[in-house]
Design a protein that fits this description.
Elements lengths: L3 E5 L8 H14 L4 E5 L5 H5 L11 H4 L10 E2 L5 E4 L8 H5 L8 H11 L5 E5 L6 H9 L2 E7 L4 H17 L7 E10 L4 H13 L4 E7 L2 H5 L7 H4 L4 H17 L8
Parallel strand pairs: 1-5, 1-6, 2-4, 2-5, 6-7, 7-8
Antiparallel strand pairs: 3-4
Amino acid sequence: MACTVFTIANQKGGVGKTTTAVNLAAALAEQEIHTLLVDLDPQANATSALGVDKQEGKSLYGPLRGEGSAFEMLTPTEWPHLAIIPSEVDLAAIEIELAQQENYLMRLRSVLEPIRNSGGYRAIIIDCPPALGMLSMNSLAAADHLLIALQCEYMALEGLGQILKVVERLKNAGVNPTLDVGGIVMTMFDKRNNLAKQVVEEVRSHLPDKIFTTLIPRTVRLSEAPSFGKPILVYEPTGPGAMAYRGFAAEVITRFGLKENGAT
């Protein structure tokens, strides 16, 4: 059973990146696809959004420094088929420490390799900090596909150009020659807002084969759900946010063959 690694990255904060990572992971798990969510953001928002307590020594801080293994950090969630490697504030220090190591861009890839090869998971989803620092670069080096969460606002288009350039640089430098921009998911879409529609059309016209059809709406419930430690699929299972993330997950499953040969 092949394991596919996705990283969800954007150097801009507040674009729905963590919301997308958490709810995509939950939606894949709902389809009985064994999924691991890796919280690589020192703010640990993905960890708390799944109702998992932040625990000292349970993040990838140690393994990235060569202490212990990622297997020791695997933490179950309340939901079958979904596990998490939590984050903690100590992870912020690794940004400086990684730069002093050999092959510093490849540390996460090597740390996750045993889990990837174990056959325990069909999908690994990495949630990155809102910056293109050392942790985000490591996640891009470790991933098969980059999924970009893009807010439906005009300024988001500038950020999209920047992250696409970073991907090309990493590929050309041989850091991750097979890294693929797997797709762009448009978040915080308000159908009453003409600008939001224009931004979607702009991305669709430039990258028609990359943009996902599903648009993630801007809803109060999506904003509330993390404070209750639940994915939107559990917090408001029949609401527009949950329906959108199920639709997005269905596109991801189809686009990347996550259920091929009956594998989960």
